[in-house]
Request: fold
Amino acid sequence: MLPILSAFASGLLFGLGLIVSQMVNPAKVLGFLDVFGRWDPSLALVMGGAVAVSALGTMAARRRGVPVLASRLEIPSRRELDPRLIGGAALFGIGWGLVGLCPGPALVGLTFGPSEVFAFVAAMILGMAGFRLVPADWPRARFRREASRVDG
Amino acid sequence: MEDFTPVSALIGGLMIGTSAALLLVLNGRIAGISGILGGLIPPGRGQVGWRLAFLAGMLIAPLVYVAFGGILPTVVIDAPPPVLVAAGLIVGFGTRLGAGCTSGHGVCGIGRGSPRSLAATAVFLITAIATVFVTRHIIGV
Reply:
């Protein structure tokens, strides 16, 4: 029960942070992304503050070695860059720039935002479900096949 | 720069960072929203409870904020429905393919110095800025 409560508290604080920083408002986010227009640097401070505390949290978690309420730390250990990472990030940025919504603010906005948020989140969940259809080695598979064709 | 709200941005950012730190120290999990939601599609065994609890906390946050006297910011969305749906599909698919979004890569990943997250954040910031540049200053929406 305690891990559920701590996850709930953490989600609540995350949502409150997105509200206080106004990142739930896509217009505010687009103001940051519009560096060639009337630029609003607020998002940089949100990220800066969040990264600083998150870095302290990572140090504390690593020093403890084991989480307080779970059996092990689930920290991704991969370091190599691959086409999935870069391609996925590039796609995400395009979608983010089109509307100004990323997954966190979209979910928080479900509770009080206009109906547009529902449409966005429904499409986002469909997109996530669509990802399940992608072979585990895509888009690398095609590169490999082409390479083997060239090699003979 | 009249839209700049440095104080609330910094306070909100510190809250988000504290949330990520709490989830890692207590639950041993990364506070990446696309990962937490994506892990429920479909639900994995033994993975449902904490994910649903975290998402429930996020959804309830606006109600708690109002209960404590806060005034919610207005959510302004100008995009027409087809763009909205296309953007949602791309964000859902892209964040799963790239294994993270603004929170998982941007806040948590950079916070632990992950080269993958640094690269992903740089890439999605560049394509997002380029997209806004094209839609606002070239097409002129």
Residues 77-141 of chain B form one domain. Chain B touches chain A through 111 residues (CB under 8 Å).
